[in-house]
Design a protein that fits this description.
Layout: H1 3-19, E1 56-60, E2 63-65, E3 75-80, E4 86-90, E5 97-100, E6 105-109, E7 115-121, E8 124-133
Parallel strand pairs: 1-3
Antiparallel strand pairs: 1-2, 3-6, 4-5, 4-7, 7-8
Length: about 130
Amino acid sequence: MNKQRSFVTVVALAAMLGLGGCGVAGADNSSQPAQMPASSVPMPAMTASGDAMASMIHIESGKYTNAVPVSAGSTVTVMNMDTATHSVTADDGSSFNVSVPHGAVVTFTAPMKAGIYSYHSDGNAGMHGVLTVR
C-alpha cells in the first residue's frame, strides 16, 4: 500500500471517529448522519513496521485490498468504504466470518495457525481475497 493511500485512509478514519459529531451550537444538524460512538470503533494496532494500516482490509468498489501478512492471533481491522454490506468469510467455513455494514469498521482475530486463508463475501460471489498469517 503506498504512503499516500495510507495517509488518506488514516485521515478518513480520523474523520469518522472524531469529526462526525461536530456541529454548530443551536444549528439544526438533523441532516447529519448518525455516528457510532468512538469507543465502538477500535483503531488498528501498530505493527512492528509502525504502519497502523498493515492489519487492515479495505473494501471498496466491490474489491478487497490487503497485501500485507498479519501475525497469528493479531487483530485484523476491516473498513468497508463501499455502499453495500459485505462479509469477510473464510473459505474453510470456520477460521473467521464478519459482516461489515457499509461505512463501518469492524475487527476480527486472525487465525492462530500460520497459513494462507482465502476468503469471500457471502453477498457477492465475485469478491475474493487472501489473508496471509505468519
